[in-house]
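Entry 14. Structure prediction run on the chain below.
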Amino acid sequence: GDQGLAGDERAFEVPGIEADRHASLGLAAGLLAHEFNILLSGILLNAGVLLDGERGDSQRARIEMIAAKARRGADLTASLLAASRTLRVDPDDRDLFAVAKVAVRRIAEETGLDLSCPAAVDGSPVRAHVDADACVVAMLDVVFAIRAVLRESKPSMVVEVGDIEADPGARRPGAAVALRLRVNGSADVAAAALGDNPGGDWAIRLAAAVGYAQASRGSFRLFVAPSRGETVFEFRLPKALLDAGREAAPAAPRLRILVVDDDADLADVMREGLGLRGHDAEACYSGVAALDLLAARPWDAVVSDISMPGMSGYQLLEAVQDRWPGLPVLLMTAFSREIAMGERRIPARIFQKPVEVSKLLDELASLGAGRRAI
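Output returned:
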């Protein structure tokens, strides 16, 4: 399990943030992120619609650049929110080596740092029960934390994956796998890991990484050897629930989807984006209007904002579950006080804005959308 480092090495688990000490800061960060995410939602959704249409190469390149910048902003605000609230994850059985490769590519795109290709510690496949997208963002958080404390050193970094046998920190013996970022040649990072005047960006980014590990029912550990300038950041994550991969999913059906958002621009562009992906989507701008449309004809799913005047997304969810049991409802929010305070009684998938159409469709597929409510 542990790295077997000798000499002056120290190893310790990184605890989560105490909620009482950071509740005010968390809510303030969330409110700011709310305003920023509204802007990002418009940018990202419009870019997605343009990319799904027919465009020349030069136009497509510019649109892809806009989308990439918006995603970077979304990652930054997501990091703030992850540090300020209970992070929600949607885990599935994943090839951890494949997730690590995506993380290395994203790190290169977002930071310009060129990490070594991921390495499997013993060469065998490693499967974990994780939220792949959130896992990649958590790895980015660690790298941004490292960048925040670098002064003169230019360390080498490599991502590793491996099995942890009979790990006492896991929920059951032998039930954990490791995703590690090994940093060599930086006394700056080693000193920060040992608490030597780390900056605010370091603390916020690592808090976000810890939040992901804990929300995944895992842990986050550091291994530090100051004399060698070596620091290992390790996510200990649950093993995959299934030993074998699932069978390939059948072709996705054409879905009839109702989009509900009091921001008409966002509702309309999401409707258009779903239409370009081959689905029959309609937009409305209030919960009351949504109930009228739901009663008029069958639907496969509802995608609704949470914060709306008159009838909130939560109230719409309750009405749908009462009148059309089994109809999938996905909720979206730029910021919600209930989420920030760790509310767990909401029986629906909640997406943090900005939301990409492809992710909504992936979630609907996992929920079996396509059996229309009557």
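Confidence is low (pLDDT under 50) at residues 17-25, 166-173, 243-249, 340-345.
Filed with the rest of this week's runs.
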